[in-house]
Design brief:
There is one protein chain. By secondary structure, the chain is an alpha+beta fold. It has one domain (4-145): endopeptidase fold (from Nostoc punctiforme) (Alpha-Beta Complex), CATH 3.90.1720.10. Helices cover 23% and strands 27% of the residues. It has a six-stranded antiparallel β-sheet with strand order 3-8-4-5-6-7, with helices on one face. Strands 1-2 form a two-stranded antiparallel ribbon. It is globular. The termini are close together.
């Protein structure tokens, strides 16, 4: 079974991948949901029902997802955990700007603490990793882990 470290390492392989809505190709095109699904597929991770998480799954959302669809899919497919107990390899949903429509993989930067690895249509429009400062922490709505990963 893959470890939390494996999840973070695999997510970092996508750093620099350009943002594209529903992109699922390392180095070519990615969005926030695509990062979660691509990492999960490459590591052979399952959802809570034992189904493989695949990059071809969950494409039923608009470029600006409305409501809580992305968050609700995480709640349905991953294990819910307390936000205060975040660890590298976890998945978080964030408000951008008001609804939880964004996902990130939690990493850790030596000497700086927890980080976020994500791809979004903002900033440099590529998959990035940066420290999880208070501004980003306040946006977290949900915390999740992949089933079976310790």
């Amino acid at each position: 079974m893959p470890t939390r470290s494996d999840i973070v390492s695999k997510a970092r392989e996508y750093l620099g991948t350009p943002f594209l809505h529903q992109g699922r190709v390392k180095g070519k095109a990615l969005d926030c949901v695509g990062l979660i699904l691509c990492v999960a597929e490459e590591l052979g991770l399952n959802d809570v029902d034992g189904n493989l998480l695949l990059r071809t799954s969950y494409v039923d959302y608009s470029p600006q997802p409305a409501g809580r669809y992305v968050h609700d899919q995480c709640r349905e497919r991953l294990q819910i955990k307390p936000i205060l107990n975040l660890l590298p390899g976890d998945v978080v949903t964030l408000r951008l700007p008001d609804n939880p429509t964004h996902t990130c993989i939690v990493g850790e930067i030596e000497g700086q603490g927890l980080s976020l690895i994500h791809c979004y249509n903002g900033g440099n429009n590529v998959c990035i990793e940066h420290r999880m400062d208070n501004r980003w922490q306040r946006r977290i709505v949900g915390a999740f882990c992949f089933p079976g990963v310790d």
